[in-house]
Amino acid sequence: MGGCGEPGPRQADAVAAALDFQNALSDGSFGRACALLAPETRQEAASDAGDCGQVLAQEKLPVASRDAADAVAEVYGRQAMVHLSGDTLFLSQFNEGWKVVAAGCTPRPDLPFDCQVKGG
After folding, report:
1. What's the rounded Cα separation, in Å, for the pair 70 and 3?
2. 79 found inside a domain
3. Is residue 1 part of a domain?
4. How far apart are CA 16 and CA 54, in angstroms?
5. Nearest alpha carbon to residue 24 among 74, 63, 81, 73
6. In this structure, which of 53, 73, 94, 118 has its CB flanked by the most CB atoms within 10 Å?
7. Over 80: is that where the pLDDT of 44 sits?
8. Is the dihedral of CA 31, 37, 39, 43 positive or negative?
9. Is 61 among the domain residues?
């Protein structure tokens, strides 16, 4: 039974979604990686070149650790930030599960993260 005070399973689910995305990128399965993006992010990526998978291939996103032990997730309501060794991803929870909203994100002092792939 999950409640507002039990972030553990939700954090694990967000990490699993982030790792699925990283695995797809690492395997060169860019179409599968696109399916793991939030709808708005997928649409934004596709509008840049007409094909989401082609955009992800060209972006050369950072290769992050694919080890869940290296992941740190912060969950706030239906939003999550997952830090992996090599990348930070932002996710939102949809009816079908966690989806990547932004990837290839690097912190900037006193500014929001700068992300290579993000929704509009």
Report:
1. 26
2. yes
3. no
4. 24
5. 63
6. 73
7. yes
8. negative
9. yes
Read off φ and ψ for residue 71, nearest 5 degrees. Answer: -90, 140
- pLDDT at residue 6 in the model: 46
CA distances from 106 to 62, 87, 109 (A): 10, 7, 10
pLDDT of 86 reads: 86
Query: What is the total count of domains within the chain?
Result: 1
Give the C-alpha separation, 104 to 108, whole Å. 13
The verdict on residue 2 lying in a domain is no
Rounded CA-CA distance 4/87 in Å is 27
The per-residue pLDDT for 49 is: 65
Cβ–Cβ < 8 Å for 84, 14: no
DSSP for 87-111, please give it.
EEEEEEEETTEEEEEEEEEEEETTE
Joined tokens for residue 68: 């869940």
Q: Residue 35 is encoded by which pair of tokens?
A: 């399916």
